[in-house]
Amino acid sequence: MSALPDEMWRTVMDIGIETKSLQYRDLCSLSISCRRLRRLASEDSLWSFLLLTDFSLSADDLKRENGSISSSIQSGKFKSLYKIRYEKDREKNRLARRRVVLRMESEVAERLRKIRDLELQSSEEKEKLNMVVAELRNLRKARQASVAMNVWQPEVIRGKQKEMIQQSNVPVEFRINALEMEISLCKQQIAGFDKALRLEKRRLHEAEEQLASVKYHPLEYFRNASFQTMERIVRSKKFQHTSNIKED
């Protein structure tokens, strides 16, 4: 590396930046390798080009950005400008990502609320159906009892049949037809609630998957996984140490 002059290194870096083979991460990596590359990788010609391309700045924007930085910074001022703009954009992206997460969480909560409402309505409709079916069953028994009045039966049974008939304030046939129609309507309502529930649950699953993908961050996942791995290693070592003490 020391055999190559500075002009050669500048040419290599310029070509890398212009062809986008080198990015800001690569320049930062070169800067920590040695003092010579740190000096060369911090030159304004490289970072001014990165400012123009990475943030889609015009020449006038670059002049305004240059005027916003302290005049006491001479060398590496465009690198400092790049850092300022990068941190602004990173914060803006973080806030935008946070807004997306909040919107997705709100959508998931709304889906859960709709599912609870549909389950409650379906439960009420099923309870109503059971009551209607029970009433229809009793009315059919009453109709059978009215027919059986013309047949000889013991007096006790005939008295119970009279009570069942007297409890019906409307004609039995009319009420039975009404209940059969109500049962049909209840079944249609329950089928509609079940269909809506399946649809909302599918949408909820999709929203939860989108929320998980938005929340996922590779570095955070790696840090959490590494921390859990270290915890398991520490617990394993403590267990082995305790076992050795007991054996001694």
Q: Short description, anyone?
A:
This protein has 248 residues and is mainly alpha-helical.
Question: Can you walk me through this structure?
Answer:
The structure is a single chain. The protein folds into two domains: 6-75, no CATH class; 101-216, Helix Hairpins (Orthogonal Bundle), CATH 1.10.287. The protein is mainly alpha-helical and 248 residues long. The relative contact order is 0.06. Helix 1 (6-18) runs parallel beside helix 4 and helix 6 (77-148) packs antiparallel against helix 8 (172-215). The protein has helices at 6-18, 24-31, 35-41, 44-54, 59-68, 77-148, 155-166, 172-215, 218-247. The protein has nine helices and no strands. Helices cover 83% and strands 0% of the residues.
Helices and strands in order:
Layout: H1 6-18, H2 24-31, H3 35-41, H4 44-54, H5 59-68, H6 77-148, H7 155-166, H8 172-215, H9 218-247
Number of helices: 9
CATH names the topology of the largest domain as Helix Hairpins
Average pLDDT, rounded to a whole number, is 77
- Percent helix range: over 70%
CATH class of the largest domain: Mainly Alpha
Secondary-structure-derived class: mainly alpha
Write the H/E string, N to C: HHHHHHHHH
Range of strand content: under 5%
Count of domains: 2
* Major sheet size, sense and barrel closure: none
DSSP strand tally: 0
Separation, N- and C-terminal Cα atoms: 58 Å
Low-confidence stretches: 69-74, 221-227
CATH architectural grouping of the largest domain: Orthogonal Bundle
Shape: rod-shaped
Radius of gyration: 39 Å
